[in-house]
Specification:
This protein is an all-alpha fold. It contains nine helices and no strands.
Length: 204
């Protein structure tokens, strides 16, 4: 269980820093009360994590040799893709591109929203984050980890990882985003995916 918790925590924390949902939380926190944004974002990511873990448990009902092979292919494929992408990024590349994309989404979704509409802010932050996270690589990674076993450990680790990233985004996200090396994060994330792919292969 501890290994599953650690895997979920590490994979999510590294992968989500500078990601689209991180940038959405960053931009919302610059416009609206941080605690409301944090509640909405973390709630959305927690729900998404629980859904992914549930899907992973459903996948686990399939023949284990196929589940483990699919996990190996998924982790190694994502790892190679991230490393390839990182190798083609400039050394000094930061997360400005993700921020610009997230800003466009936020501008479309929050036009005319009152600063005092607390529940509206929470619900909008929830909905925007949930949609942005759907189909993200961390969702597939959570499904794969949960399918291998210890779903509670995976869920707790992933939710804590999401909460840490959301806290960084709403507290000092704009400063952090300007300093985070997108290339380095992608390379570390790619390395982690490859590591989990190798471990999944050795467990077969």
């Amino acid at each position: 269980m501890l290994a599953a918790f650690t895997a979920g925590l590490l994979l999510i924390t590294v992968s989500e820093l500078g990601d689209k949902t991180f940038c959405i939380a960053l931009l919302l926190a610059a416009r609206f009360p941080r605690r409301l944004v944090f509640v909405g974002v973390v709630a959305a990511l927690a729900v998404m994590t629980l859904l992914s873990v549930g899907l992973g448990q459903f996948v686990a009902l399939l023949p284990q040799q196929y589940v483990k092979l699919a996990a190996v292919i998924l982790f190694i494929g994502m790892g190679l893709h991230l490393l390839y992408t990182a190798s083609h990024l400039p050394t000094a590349a930061t997360c400005d591109g993700e921020i610009a994309e997230a800003a466009a989404i936020v501008d479309r979704s929050f036009t005319g929203l009152s600063q005092r509409a607390r529940w509206q802010i929470i619900l909008q932050a929830f909905g925007l984050t949930f949609v942005a996270e759907w189909g993200d690589r961390t969702q597939f990674a959570t499904v794969a980890l949960a399918a291998k076993g210890y779903p509670l450990g995976v869920a707790l680790g992933a939710i804590l990882g999401h909460a840490i990233c959301a806290a960084i985004a709403v507290i000092g996200g704009r400063l952090a985003a300007g300093r985070i090396s997108e290339r380095l994060l992608m390379a570390i994330g790619g390395g982690l995916f490859l590591l989990f792919g190798v471990l999944a292969w050795l467990e077969r």
